[in-house]
Amino acid sequence: VMQCSASLDVLFLLDGSYSIGKGSFERSKYFAGKLCDALDIHLDRVRVGMIQFSSTPHLEFPLDSYLTKQEVKERIKRIVFRGGSTETGRALKYVLHKGFPGGRNSSVPEVLIVISDGKSQGSTAMPAMQMRERHITVFAVGIKFPRWEQLHLLASEPTEQHVLFAGDADDAANGLYSTLTASVCSITAPGCKVESHPCERRTLETVKELAGNYVCWKGSKQPNAVQTSLCPFYRLKRVLIKHPSRCFRTVCSDPCDTQPCQNGGTCVPEGLDKYLCLCPAGYGGDIHCAPKLSLECNVDLLFLMDSSAGVTLEGFLRYKAFVKRFLQAVMGQDSPMKVGVAQYNNYVRIPIEVGQHKDALSLMKSIDALNFSGGGTLTGRALRYVAQHGFRSTPVFADVQDDLPRVVVLLTDSKSQDPVAEAAKYARDHDLFLIGVGSSFVRTELTEVTGNPKQTIVYSDPQDLFNRIPELQRRICSVDNPEGCQEQSLDLVFAVDASAGVGLENFLRLRSFVRSSCLHFSINRDVTQIALVVYGSKAYTVFALDTHTSNSAVLQAIDQVPFLGDSASAGSALLHVYGDVMTVQKGARPGVNKVVVMLTNGGGMEDAVAPARQLRDNGVFVFVVVIGDAQRETLLKVAGSPNYLVHVSSYEDLQYYQDLIIERICEEAKSPVNLCKPNPCMNQGVCILGPGSYRCECHGWEGPHCESS
Question: What's the CATH code, domain 490-670?
Fold first, then answer.
């Protein structure tokens, strides 16, 4: 966005001497290419040329040779290091004598950019002064650990704006643009201004320091005699020297300054005037994170919130925020759901009766008014109380009973001080559907309360609690809807991390998880096809989508899966799935939804972002199931959305997430299908959609899918 578009001749003077060395010379070339990003290179605007100098100057290309930015940058990449002494003064005299080769003869402003370590073997004072007399603007750019005092002699005034450091290429490109804007470019990008700030220049200098003393022998005035003495011993040492300075940089207003993202969304700037909102779970109905969920079921719902000392005031406030955000996400203007809130410690009270509020606003105000209680944690007593008093029916006519399903969502992070099993059974026997939400610390107790691990929602950290909103919505609405997709057509691929980072013991757990997951699907040609890929540094197809046509055959094949034990590359695994598994040649069926489930410890994910996006762009859903600690940002980029990322704290806990993962897979299996994604046509055939069908347009091939030559 920030580039100088004025008529301008720019000549690079690139130090190719031995003091720079080949490695730093390559960095200088890269830096020169980055500086070109700040220039609008065109025949009528900015022209660029380059001279390499060492013992003698050498013209690499004149200013009129390449007239697009891409051509200039490609030519810079091909420049070869020459070596020799550092004759900066001779190079400057060459420019003064020859002018800017291919330039416009001083009819436009001329800019000379010297990239050097400043260690010239001849004087540069006179030619630098002549440059100023000729009104040539000189930028001096330091490479490696330069001699800044010599670079200041070369640079135009004010030197703070014309001396740059190649160590930070983006910062230096900004500095070049900022200085040019104040003189020749004149137009600053909208919403941007040049500001100065303190900075420092660094260099390595050799100093002499006292290392100690040693005995030395000296002569004596007396014949046949010597005199001993202590002599100092010095050694040379390289030290880092910092020179304070000021830097001038262009600063642009951030489009996220107005905080456009609602409901806890994170704003990510894209350029100077655009932004993207990363929305929390349950939001994303529009670009500003409006609520997008709806409950899609009619129930009587009671939140039972732990208000004891065990959860602390902070935990209680977090539960209040969670309930509010959940209700904001799922309650529409005409929501049929009736909601209440109870809280407990040693005792139970129901400050918000089920169905008491008819609109969301008054309900939110009542939730805000709830106060922390402290005291003991008697979860068993609370469950028994809400079974008896939590759903008081208030029908219009006394003989009309409310027959909606009754759901209790228990929110706790503290172990109960009284037994819960019998009280929970009492509640379930009174037709209450119990859902437990808490940290892994209380997982066992929550499962004891709900009677089913599927109805237990466990979060890994406080922020992760809010990511569980869609899961809670599904759990509430599963009260009357049996889960599973035994009759849903699906092409499913498991990609399993078999690297050394996972280890053999944990790999066997992953293998067992895949095996038990397959029992949820009806495997045959017409319903679900399953493929299995294992990967380390490379990926291997254990069996393809069309290899096995029965559950028993798949289960038997899974038992033979080998452990690889090398490094992990999730990117190569997803590329393998895209190019060698999810293809018509390997059994993928057009018109059938396609899902990849990646089971990993989070290692080797850096190269997986682009292949995952490629799969999604071709209609393949990518679920990432990560076990243990891993970088959430990278995993989110691979999954594409928090809804497709499942974080499991340990391999032992993986079994508890199986129903959730299967449920999400089945949801995607019901999504609308694009018959041309992924492309069913082979050999570069083009897929053309028709009403409820597709056809392949072949070029040099024949057959329905361009499979025959």
Answer: 3.40.50.410
User: How far is it, in rounded angstroms, from Cα 7 to Cα 335?
Assistant: 63
Highest-confidence segment of 60-64, 104-108, 457-461: 60-64
Tens digit of each residue's pLDDT (9 = 90 or more) over 590-633: 888 899 999 999 888 888 999 999 998 888 999 999 998 777 88
Which pair of tokens denotes residue 560?
Answer: 């033979």
Q: Is-same-fold flag (490-670; 675-708)? A: no
Q: Quick one: which of 174, 167, 220 has its CA closest to 197?
A: 174
Residue 402: count of CB within 10 angstroms of its CB: 14
Which two three-digit tokens encode residue 184? Answer: 């020749």
In the structure encoding, which two tokens stand for residue 36, read together? 């070109």
N-terminal to C-terminal alpha carbon distance within the chain: 48
Instruction: Return the amino acid letter for 625.
Output: V
Place of tokens 């682009």: 610
Nearest by Cα to 533 from 516, 517, 545, 521: 545
Give dist(CA 106, CA 617) in Å, integer: 52
Domain residue spans of the chain? 8-200, 300-393+402-478, 490-670, 675-708
As assigned by CATH, the class of the 675-708 domain is: mainly beta
Who's near 452: CB < 8 A, 6+ residues apart?
Answer: none
Residues 180-218 pLDDT 10s: 877 777 666 666 777 877 877 777 777 788 888 888 876
CA nearest neighbour of 300 among 347, 335, 349, 332: 335
| pLDDT tens track for 216-273 | 876 666 777 677 788 888 888 877 777 787 787 877 777 777 778 876 677 877 766 7
Whole-number mean pLDDT of the chain?
Answer: 84
Helices (H), 542-639: 551-558, 570-580, 609-617, 632-639
C-alpha to C-alpha distance for 353 and 313, rounded to whole angstroms: 23
Per-residue model confidence as pLDDT tens digits over 106-146: 788 999 999 988 788 888 889 999 998 888 999 988 887 77
pLDDT at 350 over 90: yes
Q: Was domain 300-393+402-478 assigned CATH 3.30.1330.60?
A: no
Q: Measuring CA to CA, how many Å separate 66 from each of 50, 69, 95?
A: 11, 8, 19
- Token digits for 174? 């900004």
Q: What 3-state DSSP class applies to 159?
A: helix
pLDDT confidence of residue 281: 57
Find the mean pLDDT for residues 361-388: 92
d(CA 138, CA 140): 6
The closest alpha carbon to 293, from 340, 335, 265, 338, belongs to: 335
The answer to whether residues 243 and 203 touch, using CB atoms and an 8 Å cutoff, is yes
- The H or E element containing residue 130 is helix 125-133
Q: Residue 200 pairs with which residues in a beta bridge?
A: 244
Interatomic CA distance for residues 429 and 577, integer angstroms = 48
Q: Please give the CATH number for the structural domain made up of 8-200.
A: 3.40.50.410
Sign of CA dihedral 559, 561, 567, 572: negative
The encoded tokens of residue 64 equal: 């009129």
Q: Which residues contact 235 (CB under 8 A, 6 or more apart)?
A: 208, 209, 211
